[in-house]
């Protein structure tokens, strides 16, 4: 479908030709619709607090802010610096548990 | 570095946010109110897409942080937020969808606005029929709140004089007020609590300055039973300078009579904590009557409540609609469960809790964290939500709305299980600090944190009382559940003393730290330092008669 020259293009995934929703997107949508994603997020939060990951990240943030100076740090800076460290330091047991839960969900959702 | 005060001052609005507010006022915030939703973990999110998930208008991404523009409601992800602000003039301020927090695209940083927080927070608090606590009420309440430091009217100069006289009969340089208490038959539970009460600064000053007049008290009531009178006798005896161990038989007898209805009167070992509560209750019964007869013990003017009573706040949040109902309960002490997290192996699959040797230390702050952590109420404890008009899952969070002058912490070491018909004692060592800062357990901190990154303060009692405490007494328990022994450690002028019934000895800090604490008593820092100022041997002025009776001592 052609957009009128004067009208600003409306962002719409459906209008974008040739872009099929990926498997990942489909799964994500199903997770959200059923409310399972929220439950998984909650579980994840609980586990990460329990194992001390959250405290570790907090400490990393504090150290970074101390180094840079409080007024020189933005939230974006922190996110960029902490994200890779955070992703790398998640315990395997937590990853395994969540994968297990997602698999279980997919099995019963595919029916 | 003490930056904690800076946390609660409003940071300046960034230029872009200020411009936005000039142009739009609060209309943008208000229109957002209808889309706010509280998620089960307590966060407030924006929720207005029923059929589809929010996606970035530039890249169609749906992962990571997504921001909603306050002006045109278009969504951008964190990588494209700047692009949105650059492509549309004036669309600088956006809202984080998941957290309901303001973000400025041009500054690429989070920004804060008390008005915005007010809008978000007021959605969270419901106007309930029995709980008329609204956001504005919070501000009004704090200004009307009675001054907690009413005990400051007790002349502290006088109290110093009371205890600064050195007793010439005694060779040793022990501070006044240290006297052993004889064990009258498994009464170490009583002795240990009495020792702690004898040295609680405002409590001590009240009795030593003769505020409880035994004569008028006897005249006012025919029967002899007045726990406060008996305590007064003990104060006089203990601070008289006589060092021979004293037998607190009168208190024991009075307490037996008072607690007869509770079936506590016997020769068996009792629980020190139960005794503590019932003694304060007994004092209240006598002193509270005749004064302001209020149902709310929090405003009671009896000495027991004025010193020990604090106010706990309990927030129950419905997980479906996010509305919170708040109740306040007065408390004489706080009972803490021991935090087991450091002792469990993180074995998610097995879900086992195996205590490992030296795997971690249980600390007091961990127990306090546990106390104020949001707790999901079980599905068998669904509460009726006024907003949803049905029973819903909810979570509860406790916090301290008002701290008492003397904070008594009780560690729940004795587990009684009615189901399994057994009782056991938890022997783990608990690490506790000598200086305690309770700021993060105040309602103002806890509720603020629960609602996300907020600047808005609505519980304004920080100005009234400080949250810094100093320890002055520890009651420890050693032995088994059935046959244990209570000992009190007192800190007077930075020296620790062990009060083991009739035996008082000097001990060092390490001993105290290694002990198995059961009840810990903290006094507000200012009161502690004032009290310990004059409490030592001071050279007598030549004019004063050394045997001049101390006020209150007969």
Automatic annotation (TrEMBL), chain A:
<keyword id="KW-0539">Nucleus</keyword>
<comment type="function">
    <text>Involved in mRNA export coupled transcription activation by association with both the TREX-2 and the SAGA complexes. The transcription regulatory histone acetylation (HAT) complex SAGA is a multiprotein complex that activates transcription by remodeling chromatin and mediating histone acetylation and deubiquitination. Within the SAGA complex, participates to a subcomplex that specifically deubiquitinates histones. The SAGA complex is recruited to specific gene promoters by activators, where it is required for transcription.</text>
</comment>
<feature type="region of interest" description="Disordered">
    <location>
        <begin position="1"/>
        <end position="20"/>
    </location>
</feature>
<keyword id="KW-0805">Transcription regulation</keyword>
<keyword id="KW-0010">Activator</keyword>
<comment type="subunit">
    <text>Component of the nuclear pore complex (NPC)-associated TREX-2 complex (transcription and export complex 2). Component of the SAGA transcription coactivator-HAT complex. Within the SAGA complex, participates to a subcomplex of SAGA called the DUB module (deubiquitination module).</text>
</comment>
<dbReference type="Pfam" id="PF10163">
    <property type="entry name" value="EnY2"/>
</dbReference>
<comment type="similarity">
    <text>Belongs to the ENY2 family.</text>
</comment>
<keyword id="KW-0156">Chromatin regulator</keyword>
<keyword id="KW-0804">Transcription</keyword>
<keyword id="KW-0509">mRNA transport</keyword>
<keyword id="KW-0653">Protein transport</keyword>
<dbReference type="InterPro" id="IPR038212">
    <property type="entry name" value="TF_EnY2_sf"/>
</dbReference>
<protein>
    <recommendedName>
        <fullName>Transcription and mRNA export factor ENY2</fullName>
    </recommendedName>
</protein>
<dbReference type="InterPro" id="IPR018783">
    <property type="entry name" value="TF_ENY2"/>
</dbReference>
<keyword id="KW-0813">Transport</keyword>
<keyword id="KW-0811">Translocation</keyword>
TrEMBL record, chain B:
<dbReference type="InterPro" id="IPR038765">
    <property type="entry name" value="Papain-like_cys_pep_sf"/>
</dbReference>
<keyword id="KW-0862">Zinc</keyword>
<dbReference type="InterPro" id="IPR018200">
    <property type="entry name" value="USP_CS"/>
</dbReference>
<comment type="similarity">
    <text>Belongs to the peptidase C19 family.</text>
</comment>
<dbReference type="InterPro" id="IPR050185">
    <property type="entry name" value="Ub_carboxyl-term_hydrolase"/>
</dbReference>
<keyword id="KW-0863">Zinc-finger</keyword>
<dbReference type="Pfam" id="PF02148">
    <property type="entry name" value="zf-UBP"/>
</dbReference>
<feature type="domain" description="USP">
    <location>
        <begin position="179"/>
        <end position="525"/>
    </location>
</feature>
<dbReference type="InterPro" id="IPR001607">
    <property type="entry name" value="Znf_UBP"/>
</dbReference>
<protein>
    <recommendedName>
        <fullName>Ubiquitinyl hydrolase 1</fullName>
    </recommendedName>
</protein>
<dbReference type="InterPro" id="IPR013083">
    <property type="entry name" value="Znf_RING/FYVE/PHD"/>
</dbReference>
<keyword id="KW-0479">Metal-binding</keyword>
<dbReference type="InterPro" id="IPR028889">
    <property type="entry name" value="USP"/>
</dbReference>
<dbReference type="Pfam" id="PF00443">
    <property type="entry name" value="UCH"/>
</dbReference>
<dbReference type="InterPro" id="IPR001394">
    <property type="entry name" value="Peptidase_C19_UCH"/>
</dbReference>
<feature type="domain" description="UBP-type">
    <location>
        <begin position="12"/>
        <end position="130"/>
    </location>
</feature>
